[in-house]
Amino acid sequence: MKKVLTLNDVCLTYHTLQGETDALSHLNLEVEEGEFVGIVGPSGCGKTTILSLIAGILSPSSGSILLEGGDTNSLKCGYMLQKDHLLDWRTIYKNILLGLEIQGRISNDSLDYVADLLNKYGLKEFRNSYPHQLSGGMRQRVALIRTLALKPSILLLDEPFSALDYVTRLSVCDDVHRIIKQEKKTAILVTHDISEAISLCDRVVVLSHRPATVKYIHHILIEGEPLVRRKSPDFAITFDKIWKELDIKL
Amino acid sequence: MKYSLEHEKYLNNIRKKKIWIIISQWGVLIVLLLSWELMALTGVIDAFIFSSPSRIISTLFTLWTDSNLLLHVGVTLYETVAGFLIATAVGTLVAIGLWWCENLRRIFEPYLVILNSLPKVALGPIIIIWAGAGTKAIITMAVLICIIITTINMLNGFVEVDKDKILLMKTLGANKLQVLTKLILPANVGTLLATLKINVGLSWVGSIMGEYLVSKAGLGYLIVYGGQIFKLDLVMASTVVLCLLAGLMYYLVALLEKKLNKK
Q1: pLDDT for B167-210, tens place per residue?
Q2: What is the least distance, in Å, from the CA of A79 to any CA of chain B?
Q3: Domain boundaries, chain A
Q4: Predicted complex ipTM
Q5: How far, in Å, are A110, B91, B93, B103, B163 from residue B97 at the CA level?
Q6: Are B116 and B154 members of one domain?
Q7: Could you report the per-residue pLDDT of A96-107, keeping only the tens digit for each?
Q8: CATH entry, A3-86+151-246, from 3.40.50.720, 3.90.550.10, 3.40.50.300, 2.60.120.620
Q9: Is B260 on the interface with A (CB under 8 A)?
Q10: How far is A234 from chain B (nearest CA, A)?
Q11: Contact status of A176 with chain B (Cβ, < 8 Å)
Q12: What is the CATH number of the domain that holds B110?
């Protein structure tokens, strides 16, 4: 398998007026093409920081990050945040085109690709609706399609379901998993929800307390859709292992 | 569409309430005018000092036929609208500049605060000397009164745009100009409309204050003149016209808001 992303001995120190904080220490991680990798860790351990580094929004204090053999670049990454952040004044279609418009990549090819995505994922009838007319789950799907429209080489998901209520969350989780697998995208998911990580990912990386480093990597052998996986007996066992590794104390 | 009896009843109740409110709104005005007129007629109040609705109406007629009411309305309207438009445009541009450069914003913050709390009328004599005694001075006064609050309001709106939305724009590869035109400005159409509504009131304050200080024509001029020669009918009549014009201008802004919200 081709390696898409390599994090090599990455360290990061934060500087604030209150002082300096070691956020990441000697972090190593490799992600292969088409893989779905989950990152879990105690809260405040720097999970989101890792995504910002991969997207090139932050630079590491030391170590290197290689994305498809080259430098990191936010244009190669598709970022999905907690909230969908659809722009209220744009129609669904215009929202999906936002990234292409900004990058000046509106062309017949890219518009065809978007039309194809809209068709495949049932958004065609909503293309002229406004975001407030859609349910939370649908909005999150639009946010994912907006990201996919740019054909990113890697998807970065920063707790993309945490703003949804629990029941919606389970179905959106299924939805996102299906779309990402169907489009054969590589994805990294950051979450504090252990069961979400197990049900979505091929591998789950457990981080230590701050300064974060890789504590353990689980290969998830359970196959299938997220909701199917939750029924497997292995699910509970893996959940328990990860929970103990997280070492959460109140 | 056919509704159930219960729903019809519910709709009816709401309709009734609405009609009742409108009747009451007019009722307040009519009762006020009638009792004013009655008290003036019966001598409870001195009509020479308090004027009366009928005297106001006849004054308006003489103003129309003898002393060119339209000219006075035109002059004040011109000063007010010019002040309103200049202040909104320039104030918004300044806000964009301050949003663009954070250092500039931090440097000018205390100046904005002081200018905002300063009563702009105090600058009257300076304005008259610098801009000349005339329409220019009055427009300058209207602009000064509106511009600071416009800048502060718009800047607040710009700064309050969700940081995560800006992050999203950056991950999509947006430069600063694109963040401004595709996110910050469209996100603040509501702020602009709210500012316009404030400026309607403030620009009238500016133009009338300006006319009090220096003018040869205009509604503010008529009010001051009426006060000086103790013709309260003239003062009241000019005030009524002022009320109507200010209301009309507010209504136009509200109309604009409705149109934009529909979109």
Answers
A1: 999 888 899 999 999 999 999 999 999 999 999 999 999 999 99
A2: 7
A3: 3-86+151-246
A4: 0.85
A5: 35, 10, 6, 11, 19
A6: yes
A7: 999 999 999 999
A8: 3.40.50.300
A9: no
A10: 37
A11: no
A12: 1.10.3720.10
A104 touches chain B (CB under 8 A): no
* Residue A211: cis peptide before it, omega within 30 degrees of 0: yes
pTM of the model: 0.86
Contact call for B172 and A99, based on CB within 8 A: yes
pLDDT confidence band for B255 (50 / 70 / 90): very high
Establish if B170 touches chain A: CB-CB under 8 angstroms.
Answer: yes
Instruction: Residue A88: name the closest of A131, A128, A129, A127 by CA.
Output: A131
Determine which helix (DSSP H) or strand (DSSP E) holds B100, and give its type and residue range.
Answer: helix B69-100
Sequence-distant (6+) residues with CB within 8 A of B206 are B80, B83, B120, B138, B141, B142, B143, B144, B145, B146
Interface test with chain A among B171, B182, B262, by most A beta carbons within 10 Å = B171
Taking alpha carbons only, the member of B136, B127, B22 closest to residue B83 is B136
Whether A79 and chain B come into contact, CB under 8 Å, resolves to: yes
Q: Are residues B151 and B104 in the same domain?
A: yes
The CA distances from residue B214 to A52, B64, B75, B79, B209, in Å, are 61, 23, 13, 13, 9
Do both B190 and B112 map to the same domain?
yes
Chain A residue numbers with beta carbons less than 8 Å from the beta carbon of B170 are: 57, 74
How many folded domains does chain B comprise? 2
Is residue B210, in this structure, part of any structural domain at all?
yes
Across the interface, whether the CB atoms of B164 and A81 are under 8 A apart is answered yes
Quote the distance between the C-alpha of residue A213 and its chain's center: 19
Q: What residues are paired with A11 via a beta bridge?
A: A62
- Mutation target vs A (from B172, B175, B180, B184; most A CBs, 10 A cutoff): B172
B255 burial class (0-12, 13-18, 19+ CB within 10 angstroms)?
exposed
B161 and B255 housed in the same domain = yes
Q: Which residues in chain A are closer than 8 Å to B164, comparing Cβ atoms?
A: 81-83, 85
Domain co-membership, B71 together with B200? yes
Distance CA B157, CA B164 (A): 15
Q: Does A101 touch chain B (CB under 8 A)?
A: yes
CB B23 within 8 A of CB B16: no
Q: Is A187 exposed, middle or buried (0-12, 13-18, 19+ CB in 10 A)?
A: buried
**Residue A116 has which token pair?**
């194809």
What distances in angstroms separate CA A225 from CA A40, A123, A232, B33, B211, one per listed residue?
A: 20, 22, 11, 75, 75
Show the domain range for B26: 5-45
Q: Is residue B52 part of a domain?
A: no
Residues from chain A contacting residue B167 (CB–CB below 8 Å): 57, 79, 81
